[in-house]
Amino acid sequence: MTCITHTEFDGKTEGVTVAEAYSGSIKDRTILVTGVNKRGIGFGIVQAFASQSPRRLILAGRSASKVQECIDDLRSQYPDVDIDYRLLQVDLSAQESVRKAASVVLSWTDVPTIDLVINNAGVMNLPQKLLSPEGIEMHLATNHIGHFLLTNLILPKLIAAAKNSPPGSVRIINVTSLAAYLSGLRASDMNFNKASSEIPEKERPNAAFLRGGGLEADDHMSYIPMAAYGHSKACNILFSVGLNEKLYEKYGILSLSLHPGEVRSDLHRTTDLDWLDKATKSRESQGFFWKTPTQAAATALVGALDPNLVRPTSDGHGYFLNDCRIGKAPPHAVDETDAHKLWELSEGFVGESFAW
Prior knowledge:
By secondary structure, this protein is an alpha/beta fold. It is 40% helix and 11% strand. It has helices at 15-21, 41-50, 64-77, 95-107, 138-162, 207-212, 225-251, 273-284, 293-305, 336-350; strands at residues 30-33, 56-61, 84-89, 116-119, 170-175, 253-259, 320-322, 325-326. Helix 1 (15-21) packs parallel to helix 2. The longest helix has 27 residues, at 225-251. Belongs to the short-chain dehydrogenases/reductases (SDR) family. Keywords: NADP, Oxidoreductase.
């Protein structure tokens, strides 16, 4: 059974501590991270990577000014480290923006390879159902479809990196959440148009779990904010399952997913704060604590760098990391049949097939 190298790491480990432990796997590499802004996990991730002299950090975000703020801060923190910082503006909810960003990356002739991609950007708990410009439910569009499209479009540069790298060292890391337990793949109703009672039982959200958390949920409701978020997070894990099937044997590219922990970041900007405070207090007795962005970054770095992590087993063990350790993924999120189905549905949403 797979075990991480540094068993002393846990939920309070700092990202920089992990980076120092795996410094040789960072130095001189090219790394792309989405969802980078000063208040979020993305900045904690790039901050940790920057401490160990990567060749290049590609910082992707919706706001160019916020990404530039991060780059300026990193240059100030690490003035003696020669890193090629690249700003990549992208709105992952809009496919036109994603295609434009991918075109920019592919046009960089001085960036022939990309070694690590951390798909971190996301939205959460949108109170009203919103659709992307392409008519896709917004959690799904931003958290999964945007990353599905971006990753596939820039994949030639990861394949190029993998040609001269040990198997499993070029990686695609999908930041998911424990919210993946709330919903399996809603294949028959990806846009939450139907009431839960109208879709197959296996696709219905976990209403009991939602109600236990103080959220409204019944079989007559169609759009439930946290269920939609959970659906997109289950898709993140299923995306890793699909990527490994297509890429690991042929190219040696590995994909894993992780729950970073919870951070008081802009991700909660649309969450009811009274509910959030009540939910926090009820979970504190079970050991819950808010992580700093640098603590939340740690598990992403373990997933990206630990050499002991290999392609997960067919039962799904190893796909999901939590608190810098291998955790238990929801069974519905590592189902290979659903991973196949999600890949097909995702290709339909973007209007393009990817045969790797």
